[in-house]
Each structure stands twice: as structure tokens, then as C-alpha cells.
Amino acid sequence: MPSGISSFFGLNTALRGLQTTQAALDVTAHNIANADTQGYTRQTVDLEQFVGLKVTSGARSGNGGALLGGGVDVSAYRRIRDAFADLQYRTQKSIHGEADTTAQTLSNVELVLNEPGDKGIATLLSRLWDAWQQVANQPEDTATKGALVVNATALADGIRALDAQLAAIKDNAATEFAAYTAVGGDVLANAAEIARLNAQIKQATAAGQQPNALLDQRDLLIDRLSELGHVTITELPNNSVQIAFGNVATPLLVDDTTAWEPTPPATTLYPTPSPGGKLGALQELSQTGGTIDQYRADLNAFVAQLVNDVNTAHGAPFFAAGGTTAATIAVDPGILADPTTVQTTAIAGSPPGANDIALAVAALRGGTADRLYAGFVLRIGSEARDANRRVSAAEAVLSSADTRRQSVSGVSIDEEMANMIRFQRGYQASARTMSTLDDMLDTLINRTGRVGL
Amino acid sequence: MRITQNMLNDRVLSDLGRAMTRLDRATQEMSTQRKLLRPSDDPVGAQRAVLTRAQLKENEQYEDNISQARGWMQTTSDTLAEITKLLHRATELTVQGATDSAGPEARLNIAQEIDQIVAAVKHAGNTSYGGVYLFAGTATTAPPYDTTTVPPVDTYAGDNGIVAREIGPGVSVQINALVNTGTPPLLGGGGGDGGLIDTLRSISAHLKGGTPADAEALRTTDLRALQANLTRINETQAQLGATLNRLDAAEDRLAASTEAATRLLSDTEDVDTATAILELNTAQTVYEAALKTGATIIQPSLLDFLR
């Protein structure tokens, strides 16, 4: 039997060409349609030669025969994605999340601080010293003492308000943290969704399919998670993954189950070790002894110094003796009730014009207490600036990581258009091959044996 | 590197955002005329601003203290000048009364005038400034001399407390003149203490006495005592003058310090308008350029050129 090639073999080859280019065009259409879809990874058609047909005739040497190509076939619809770019992007995303949250919170702290300016604690403190000077100038005048008490009350109120606002900022951070980590919060919601996708991906992969859309969705969710914390991804069989936060011992999810369900393991996540990202920042800000607590401790140190200095110089409680913290500072109730009890002199018989005590208190101006407060402002300023700087650095790196990822995975309309033309031409060529074959068959069928008719 | 349309869009958007942020900052600096809007803009500067502001407030208060002290001392000095005049008149009268030619009636008249001078001196001793008695030591709320009781009581009701004002950090000056301490006391409280009031009372008594011994006393001890009282007043005036000079010097120093602090605060907090305007214009130009680039870049793709 010389030739084993069917007359219709070429038709099939051309048909496969048509089908494949059509599939490629479909992918192009899919890419264009999803050009703006968040988390979409561009796809390409992987083509492979169709297994050849062994042809005995025409074999030149031996009797091995030759392989005739049978056309083309789609081997896979591949996502174009760079795992390293993903890693880089997610790492930066969590650094950015942390810096951004810290910077925003510290900017709130700066707002409540209201320094430098005419409305902050520094001004109120200056007014207190001024009032003491006025008392020293006119110790016999009870009006100056009244004014002093009013100014001291304003300062105490201002400090208490500042402390309360700092406490509120800390509480807000704690609340936000709780909202993220609670059941139904972003962390668990994302984890549950990823676990569900894991199950589907596993099933599809095991069945030999390529669940591109599911993988894209999962990657998008992991991106979201990585803003909240520094994610560590461990690959599992069948395209499934395990995800953990930073150094946290219990993984967030393993395969198709969330390890945190039904309640987050608050004890293993909070307060140590830090999950990084937004959660890490919120944790650092809100935990006992965290950033905000340290600020409040600084404020307390200033208040303790102020109360102690003034009361020592005054010889009797001017600020209430029990109120040596920012939350409790107050003018002594006795003095508040009767401003004339403000002491101005330690001289026996208290002559009305003597002002040695008032002078001693006024001389505290610019002393340790003032410096502690200025240092407190300096500290908040430096830390806020550092956070701002980290945000802009993280933004720059994040944007370049994103660009890199986009560069690999993003849909380029130009490229798709070029592909479209390519595939269209391919389709046309295959169609032409088919019609040529058709012509040949036409000749064979309709013209054979009709010579001379 | 492969570039996609979305990358261009994102880039244009983030560049626009950055340009906008810069513009916002420049506008804010222009409208507030301050470059230090938050501590994080310049932490060390913020600390400096807090301390400098406190320093300015402090200087203001010291200036206020100085002007109050000056008023107090000026009034003291004026009062002492008035007392000096009275003292000179008393000296004249004493000399007049001490001459042998003066008859008893004339001496009695002179004694009465001297009594009036005592009343005037005590009245001067009760001078008050802003409701505060200047010559009462630290017992400033009550008049130091009794000017109403008849027969007159000369005792001093004040104390010898020093009234001081702070005119600079840690620098206090005494602003009151003590009238009932030292030998002889400036005005004293009568009762043989040698003060001016006591001297005048003894002159009055000697004039009224009219004996040769009285006349001799007028000529010798009384005139000498008046001289001592005058010296004392002059010493006090000289002290007041010196302190007033110190106040002037302190005020000059404060003015210099205030000027330096104001300049430092301004350097730390305020914008240089020229720089700020330049920055605003640059920011505006950059923003407009970013917008224009965005508009031209985003439009075309191969799509636009395919039939």
C-alpha cells in the first residue's frame, strides 16, 4: 500500500488551523475585554504541532517512512505572570500598608498637638508663667490670683484634653485592629474566600483544567491580604496554597480550610509577634507600651515635673497633689474654690506686698518642664516625619514593583491589536488552504473522467 | 520593558497626584505664610519654635515687669524730691527760729508750720501707686502713717520687707525705698529714732519750748540731724537712680533678645515669600505639564490607526 494519506487529510489540517486561530482570537478578545479588570492576568494561547502522520511513501532511505505534520493544536491557555514580581509587590504592599497607617495616625497626633502655634499647650504654659509673674508684680491684688487660677485651669484642661485625644487615637487604632481581625473582618473574610478558591482550583487542576480566572481572583485576594500583613505563601500540591502572616505561628489558612475559623487566635497574633503591614502598624500603635502609650508617658513625665516643680516652689499644693499624670492634672480644689489662698510669700505674717513665692514659681519658666514639653513635640515631629518619609519611599518602590508586574501581566492594547491582525491573517490563510484543497477535490470529483466531454 | 496602556494611565495618575500634592503644599505655605505647619515638617525647628515662642512671651512679661517697676520707682523718686523740698523749707524755718531775734510768738508760728510739714511728710509717706502703698515695705495694703488721729501719732505701720521685681531670668531688683530702717531711718516712726519725722517733731518741740537751751539745740543738734536726714534722702535717690539705669540696661538687653528670638522664630517658621512664590509657580507649571502630557499620551493606541 503506497500512500496512507487520505484525500481529506489536508482539510483536517486546515480545519485545525482555523480552529486554533479562532481560539487565539477568542483569547485576544478575552484579553481586550479584561484590559481594565482588576487583578486580571493577560493570557496567551500555547500552540503545539499536531502529532504527525507516518507516511511510508516517499521515504527516501530505508523503510522508516516520514512524519507528515497534522496541523496545530492548543496545548494551554497560559497566564503570563512572574512569581518574583508578585513576591516583590506583596512585600512592598505590606511595608507600604504599615508606613501609611503609622503616618496617618501620627498625623492625627500632630493635629491634636496643635504645635507650633498659638493654640497649643506651649502657649497655655507660657500664660501660666505670665500669670505667676503678674501675681509677683501685684501680690496684694486678688484679681491677679483669680486670673492665675483661670490660666492654670486652662492649662490643666488643655493637658487633660490632649491626653484624652491621644487615648482616643489609641482606642481608634485598637478598634480598627479588632475590626480587621474579628470574625467577618477583612482578614477572615479574605482567608475564607481564598480557602474556597483553593478548593475549586485544586479540583480543576486535578481534572487537568487550567482555572485561570480562579487563580487571578486568588492572587487579587492575596494582594489585599498583603496590605494588612506580611504574607508568607507556601505552595501545596495541585496549585493550592497555605498562607501565614509574617512570623505568626498559626497560618491563616491551609489549603481549603481557614486555620483561624471560627475565632481568630487573638493570643497568638496579639501582641507578639507582629504580623507586619497595616495590622502590625495598628498593633504597634495601640498596644500597651506602644507608640501612643509612649507619647502619653512623655506627656505624663512633663506633667509630673510641672506639678512637682510648681508645688515645691509654692510650698503647698497649687496643682492637686494627686494629679501628677496628664489624665488627672487639676488645680488644687482649695485654690480653685478660693483663689486668694494662692501663696505669694513664705515670710512670717505674710505681708501682702511680699512676692518671694510668686517670684520663685515664675522663675520656673523655661525650666525642666518647658524643656520636657518641647522634647515631647520634637519626638512626635521626628517620628511623624520618619513615617512620612517611609510612606513616600514605600510608595515609590511599590509603584515600581507594580509597574514591573503590570509590565509582565498587563494587557497591552497595541499588542492585542497586532495579535488580532496576526490571527486574522492566520485564519484567512487557513481558510484559503481549505478552499484550495476544496478546489483540488472539486477537480478530482467533478472533472475526473470527463476529458473531452 | 513591555509597557501597557494601563501602566501609562497609572503613571500619569500617580504623577498628577504627586504634582497636586506639591501644589497643595505650596498653596498652603503661601496662604499661611508659614513653612512649619506641623512638627513633622521640621522636628528640631518645631522644638526650637516652642522654646523661642516661650522666650518671647517671657521677654514680653519682663518688659511689662520693668515698666511697672519703673513707674513704681519714678513715683518713689518724685515723692522723695517732694520730701526734700519740705526738708529744705524746714531747714530754713529752723535757722529762722534759732536766731535770737525771733520772738516767742514768731517761734510758735514757725513751730506750727513745722507741724504742717510733718503732716505733709507723713502724707508723702502714704503715697500709693496703683492702690499699693510705696513706703509700707511689704505691708502694701495699708497706709504706713496715721494722718488722721489728733493728737498726731507718728508710729510706722508698715514693715521693712523688700519689694522686688524680676527684670530678667533670675535677676530681681529691689524697687521700694525702706523708710523705717537704718541710722538714721529715712522717715522713721518718731519716738527718738532720728528719722526725718522725729527730727521735725523735736524741732517743733524746741521752738515751742523757747528756752536758751532749746535755741541752742535748734542751732546745733537739730540742724545737724536735718543734714543727716537730707544725706539719707540723697543716698536713697542715688540708689533709685542707679536701679532705674539698671532697668534701662535690662530693657535694652531684652529688646535685643526679643529681636534675635523674633528673627529666629521667623527663620524657623515663616516662609520666604520669594521662594514660596517661585515654588508655587513651579508646582503649578509642573501640574499643568503633567496634565498636558497625560492628555496627549493617553489618547492614541494602535486601535486608532486600524481601519
What is the mean pLDDT of chain A?
87
What is the general shape of chain B? rod-shaped
Largest sheet of chain B: 2 strands, antiparallel
What is the overall silhouette of chain A?
rod-shaped
**Annotation field: number of helices of chain B:** 6
Which secondary-structure class do the elements of chain A indicate?
alpha+beta
What share of residues are in beta strands of chain B? Answer: under 5%
Number of DSSP E strands of chain B? 4
Question: Kindly, what is the distance between the CA atoms of the first and last residues of chain A, rounded to a whole number of angstroms?
Answer: 32 Å
For this structure, the quaternary state is: heterodimer
Helix content of chain B: 55-70%
Main sheet: strands, sense, barrel of chain A: 4 strands, antiparallel
How would you classify the helix and strand content of chain B by structural class? mainly alpha
Give the low-pLDDT segments of chain B: none
The number of distinct β-strands of chain A equals 8
The Rg value of chain B, from CA coordinates, equals 38 Å
Spatial separation of the terminal alpha carbons of chain B? 28 Å
What percentage of residues of chain A falls in helices of 4 or more residues? Answer: 55-70%
Low-confidence stretches of chain A: none
Structure characterization notes:
- The complex is a heterodimer of chains A (about 450) and B (about 300).
- Chain A is of the alpha+beta class and about 450 residues long.
- Helices cover about 60% and strands about 10% of the residues of chain A.
- Chain A is built from 13 helices and 8 strands.
- Chain A has a 4-stranded antiparallel sheet.
- The radius of gyration of chain A is 39 Å and the shape is rod-shaped.
- Chain B is mostly helical.
- Chain B contains 6 helices and 4 strands.
- Chain B has helices spanning about 5-30, 45-100, 105-125, 195-210, 210-270, 275-300, and strands at about 130, 130-135, 165-170, 170-175.
- A two-stranded antiparallel ribbon of chain B has the order 1-2. Chain B has a two-stranded antiparallel sheet with strand order 3-4.
- In chain B, a hairpin with a 2-residue loop joins strand 1 (about 130) and strand 2 (about 130-135).
- Chain B is rod-shaped, with a radius of gyration of 38 Å.
- The mean pLDDT of chain B is about 90.
- Classes of the chains: A alpha+beta (about 450), B mainly alpha (about 300).
- At the A-B interface, helix 2, helix 3, helix 12 and helix 13 of A face helix 1, helix 2 and strand 3 of B.
